[in-house]
Amino acid sequence: MKLNNDSFWSKIIYILSFIIVGAVAFLILGPRPENLAGKLDVSLLPTINASLNLITTILLIFGFYNIRKKDRIKHKQFMLSAFGTSTAFLVSYVVYHWFKSGPKIYSGDWTILYYFILISHIVLAAIITPLALFTLYHGWNNSLQKHRNIARITLPIWLYVSITGMMVYGMLYF
User: Fold this and answer.
1) Which residues of the chain have a pLDDT value below 50?
2) What total number of domains does the chain contain?
3) Which CATH number is 101's domain given?
């Protein structure tokens, strides 16, 4: 019996997404090895992460602009670059939370707004993981109708996650 390629990759995407989201949740909520906090200076990583979110946002907008112009080559370049900066963000985020104990506490005057943005950001960041991978998979394999259909959902969520990531950073550090 021949395994359907889409079925195989769908399973891989779901497993990978579960591992990524689970690892991030564990880093935020789970126990840390003793004396790990402070072993590596990660104080610049929130700024780097916000910068990566900004770059991702710009790349996504340019990718969308180029597909509207029907320039598939530039679209692909911008979207793969956005995927790369999002991946770099994820690695940096994991490193930051591995070596820092617990999340930074919000101390501003906009608590309800902050937690609304933060919670929606977290939920949609978990959702965007498989969405981005499926969108990338279908684009890579020239399943253009499937790619278009899922990209219509993926792009606004990905933009929201990138922009709210910068907003959370701004609310915590300024």
Assistant:
1) 1-3
2) 1
3) 1.20.120.80
CA Rg value for the chain: 18
Domain residues for the domain of 116 are 5-173
Q: Are 128 and 154 in contact (CB under 8 A)?
A: yes
Q: Which residue has the tokens 């949609």?
A: 124
Using one digit for the tens of pLDDT, what is the confidence trace for 100-123?
866 778 999 999 999 999 999 999
Does an H or E element contain 92, and which? helix 72-99
Task: Give the distance from CA 21 to its chain's centroid.
Answer: 10
Write the single-letter amino acid at 30. G
Q: What is the identity of the amino acid at 69?
A: K
Q: Which amino acid is at 146?
A: K
pLDDT for the residue numbered 150: 98
Separation between Cα atoms, residue 123 and residue 12, nearest integer Å: 21
